[in-house]
Write a structure and sequence with these properties.
Layout: H1 2-27, E1 30-36, H2 55-62, E2 65-67, E3 70-71, H3 77-86, H4 113-119, E4 123-129, E5 156-160, E6 172-173, E7 176-177, E8 187-189, E9 219-220, E10 223-224, E11 228-230, H5 242-256, E12 262-267, H6 289-310, E13 317-323, H7 359-362, E14 366-369, E15 377-379, E16 383-384, H8 388-396, H9 412-415, E17 425-429, E18 433-437, E19 440-443, E20 468-471, H10 487-506
Parallel strand pairs: 1-12, 1-13, 2-15, 3-16, 4-5, 4-12
Antiparallel strand pairs: 2-14, 5-6, 6-7, 8-11, 9-10, 13-14, 17-18, 18-19, 19-20
Helix pairs in contact: 2-6, 5-6
Length: 507
């Protein structure tokens, strides 16, 4: 009898412990990361825009925390995405803007943010733009494509392999091209034209919008792209369907995983070129395709938030909304974005934008929401996207291994609104290196010539042969270079930058 009683008590204790563990697991917040492409600091009405309305994003900001000094780690897309998922500045891996047939630049053996969350019991998904490479060399688009998102911590992926303006113009779900007919195999080249499909330079009459020489490769859906491809016609995407296809995938993932912790990395193609919104958003603004793409982006954000509310997940979901780099107006296609800009300031009061070393290149919208956990308001703490890795690891209560995330810092108290004490220093990457220390901004002289196509972007790049020093407190628009008049301060920040770059590699 005593033995039976002991066994019963043991079973009860095990059941209680198991229930407690399950409760603890379920209590972990779901995490939805909405990563917009080329969205500037001034592109949302909650950040001061008046030429375009973004009611869904504004609602997110009104109920959450809106940051005024939040930064992506680089002023271009691939480096920023690398930094978020690895917790490491991209220059440590020499990560730059990738062609569409580049190999995966994240080592499958290293701990990544999605992999870390998997360890904590999360189901993870990457949906939308990828642009971090696929495969171990040039991918075989007609077979299993590996390694990719699945190998670095995502349970599921449905991606645009590179960018909307680059070949291949197909979706990849997990390891395979979607709707591929193997009798019409895909081939990709970034060196020379291949196949019989028309290219933009030879057939401009076939284009929905004219393009510069960089974007004058193979024509798909009436748009010439960067690079050349042949075959795979049944798998071609239609740009105008991006919002519906990708949003449906995101909403399905949320619903399918409603009963367990999940992490959704939702990387929107908006507002990257070519800007070809769904028909229901065409004419939504007076700013042409770029403004309409912002309106479409706002609708997508609203769809995600509505799904969380409908499934009663909103109170246990941490939502992070931000952009991969600053804005660019003319980025290779004649879409009237520049002529219809009007008084709109895509980067707000800040100078520069995408590709730029100035503040407009990396200072981006950053909104964090978690009802009941994040204190609503406005926060001026300095924070970088590279910090999300360790911050989320703290919130998910899972350790970061020693060699992982060398540049990331746990700023979870900042994300929750419990403090305004963010970073005191930070590295920013453009086609040169920049360093923030408090309100001081140092821009290093360029050491090598930037790519030739950059000259066509009509954006102040900040790439100069001499050092630059700005006091952002008194000169947020970076109009007055103080380097010559403050040589000691300039040297101190240059030395600090060199030390920080070297220190991270030893962490």
């Amino acid at each position: 009898m005593r033995r039976r009683y002991t066994l019963m008590m043991l079973c009860c204790l095990l059941a209680i412990a198991n229930a407690s563990a399950q409760t603890k697991t379920i209590a972990k917040p779901n995490i939805v990361f909405i990563y917009v492409d080329d969205l500037g600091y001034g592109d949302l009405s909650c950040y001061g825009a008046t030429s375009v309305k973004t009611p869904n994003t504004d609602r997110l900001a009104a109920g959450g925390l809106r940051f005024t000094d939040g930064h992506c780690s680089a002023s271009t897309c691939t480096p920023s995405r690398f930094a978020i998922l690895t917790g490491s500045y991209a220059f440590r891996n020499k990560a730059a803007i990738l062609p569409g047939d580049a190999p995966l630049i994240i080592n499958p053996g290293q701990q990544t943010m999605p992999g870390m969350l998997q360890q904590a019991g999360y189901t993870t998904a990457a949906i939308g733009k990828w642009h971090l490479g696929l495969g171990a060399g040039h991918p075989n688009w007609n077979d299993s494509i590996s390694p990719g998102p699945r190998e670095i911590g995502f349970n599921y992926s449905f991606i645009i392999p590179a960018t909307p303006d680059r070949v291949p113009t197909v979706f990849v779900e997990d390891h395979h091209v979607v709707k591929l007919d193997l009798n019409d195999p895909v081939s990709v080249s970034y060196d020379h034209p291949i196949g019989n499909d028309p290219i933009g330079l030879q057939h401009p009459e076939m284009l929905k919008m004219q393009a510069d020489s960089q974007h004058s490769g193979t024509i798909v859906n009436g748009v010439s792209r960067i690079g050349y491809m042949s075959g795979g016609h049944s798998a071609y995407w239609k740009d105008e369907d991006f919002s519906e296809v990708l949003t449906a995938k995101a909403l399905h993932f949320i619903e399918a995983n409603r009963s367990q912790p999940f992490f959704l990395y939702f990387a929107l193609p908006n507002v990257h070129v070519p800007r070809m919104s769904n028909a229901k958003f065409v004419g939504a603004t007076q700013m042409g395709p770029r403004g309409d793409d912002i309106a479409e982006m706002d609708w997508i954000t609203g769809q995600v938030m509505d799904q969380l509310r409908k499934l009663n997940l909103i109170n246990n979901t941490l939502v992070i909304f931000t952009s991969d780099n600053g804005p660019v107006i003319d980025d290779g296609y004649a879409d009237n974005a520049e002529s219809k800009l009007g008084k709109h300031q895509a980067a707000g009061i800040y100078k520069g934008g995408k590709y730029s070393a100035y503040e407009g290149g990396t200072r981006v919208p950053l909104i964090v929401s978690w009802p009941g956990k994040v204190k609503p308001g406005v926060n001026d703490a300095l924070i970088s996207q590279v910090d999300f890795f360790r911050s989320l690891s703290a919130l998910a209560a899972v350790p970061v291994i020693n060699s992982a995330a060398p540049d990331s810092r746990d700023l979870s108290p900042v994300l929750l609104g419990n403090t305004r004490q963010g970073r005191t220093e930070m590295i920013e990457e453009a086609f040169t290196m920049c360093y923030r220390q408090g309100n001081w901004k140092y821009i290093a002289p360029v050491t090598q010539a930037p790519p030739s196509w950059l000259a066509n972007k009509k954006v102040p790049t900040g790439l100069q042969a001499d050092p630059q020093l700005y006091n952002l407190k008194t000169d947020p628009a970076e109009q007055h270079n103080l380097a010559a008049s403050m040589p000691a301060k300039t040297k101190a920040l240059a030395d600090a930058l060199r030390l920080e770059m070297a220190a991270g590699s030893r962490k």
